[in-house]
Design brief:
This protein has 345 residues and is of the alpha/beta class. The protein is built from eleven helices and twelve strands. A ten-stranded mixed sheet has the order 1-2-3-4-7-8-9-10-11-12, sandwiched between helices. The chain has a two-stranded antiparallel ribbon with strand order 5-6. The longest helix is centred in the C-terminal third of the chain and has 15 residues. The relative contact order is 0.12.
Length: 345
């Protein structure tokens, strides 16, 4: 597999162009074209420069293999990577802008029982440029205008565990927020982790103020371990301590995702456990009605159950919301479209 030019920031691209003996302004031409979602072969630079670059770099590191549009406007994408691997992403439309959910790995090794991304295990990490290119191709599909881009917010909640691919994710965060490029503020980016504690501390220390989101789903280590193997390595107490450190370093409150699973974590005692665990902390609870995965036996809750649980949290003094269900008719849960494609293939 060739290298990926989108892995490079503008300064690194300038160094590459200088090493090739080209005029410095060619770097900015290339960079602007890449940020518009163009292939190397489509960028308006001398043909001999394109030819030299294509000897070492992928012309199209990622392409849209298929897309589905929900009745609510949500767009789900199946992406093909240059090596033939498949990942997916979602573009969710809100009044404040459009949020793209991106993948950070091909598959996942975390083994969470409510997630389709883990069904075939981890294949490999994505490079920073492959993560970025998911946004670039979706922007391009909507016109490629950097001044009025289609994607205004990002959530790293697609296939994979972002902190299990820490170095590439960190480079992606720096590149996607660069003023000369896509220029999406770190404050408009959310990173979701199942709770790899040492990497939460590392992320806090670099002080890129993304919204830290923790997949919690239970309040006890025993309960959490039933659906999340990571709970056997890092305790809830350790995760909370790391979150507090993140808040101290960045000033950003943290968010807990809590998927409501029927018969597992949605009774009054679970609400009381959440209140006891989180009340008074600078955090928010994002309740999610489980997107059922065909290969798993976990079931979601009714709308009444979900709102009853939300009411208990609010009455107990927690900041909480129930996430609006979107894209249900096109397989909205992470990993479902890829899993279906791999099964059919």
């Amino acid at each position: 597999m060739k290298k990926i030019l989108q892995d490079l920031g503008l300064a690194e691209l300038e160094n590459l162009i200088s090493a090739l003996g080209e005029k410095p302004f060619r770097a900015k031409q290339l960079y602007t074209g890449l940020m518009q979602g163009k292939k190397i072969s489509q960028i308006n630079v001398p043909a001999n420069l394109r030819t030299r670059l294509l000897e070492d770099y992928e012309d199209e590191p990622i392409r849209i293999l298929n897309s589905l549009t929900s009745s609510d406007g949500t767009e789900k994408y199946l992406f093909a990577l240059a090596d033939g691997n498949i990942i997916e992403g979602v573009l969710m439309k809100y009044k404040y802008g459009n949020t793209q959910c991106v993948s950070t790995q091909v598959g996942c090794r975390m083994g969470c029982k409510f997630c389709a991304s883990t069904l075939n295990g981890l294949v490999r990490n994505l490079s920073s440029g492959e993560i970025l290119s998911q946004i670039l191709v979706v922007n391009a599909a909507h016109g490629g205008n950097l001044e009025k881009r289609a994607v205004t917010n990002i959530v790293l909640m697609g296939s994979g565990e972002p902190l299990d691919n820490y170095d590439n994710v960190l480079t992606f965060l720096k590149n996607v927020s660069a003023p000369c490029g896509v220029n999406i503020s770190a404050r408009n980016i959310s990173l979701s982790t199942c709770g790899i504690v040492p990497k939460i501390y590392a992320l806090a220390d670099v002080q890129i103020p993304v919204n830290l989101t923790i997949s919690l789903h239970q309040t006890t280590d025993e309960g959490r371990a039933r659906t999340m193997p990571i709970a056997k390595k890092y305790t809830v107490a350790e995760i909370l301590k790391a979150c507090e450190y993140y808040f101290e370093k960045t000033g950003r409150r943290y968010i807990f995702e809590y998927s409501l699973i029927n018969g597992e974590n949605c009774d009054k005692e679970h609400a009381e456990g959440l209140i006891k665990l989180l009340k008074g902390k600078p955090c928010h609870v994002n309740l999610i009605r489980l997107n059922e995965v065909e290969e798993r036996d976990l079931k979601t809750v009714t709308e009444n159950q979900a709102y009853r649980f939300l009411g208990l949290l609010e009455k107990g003094g927690l900041s909480a919301t129930l996430r609006r269900q979107i894209g249900v008719d096109i397989g909205g849960a992470c990993g479902q479209l890829r899993a279906s494609y791999l099964k059919n293939e």
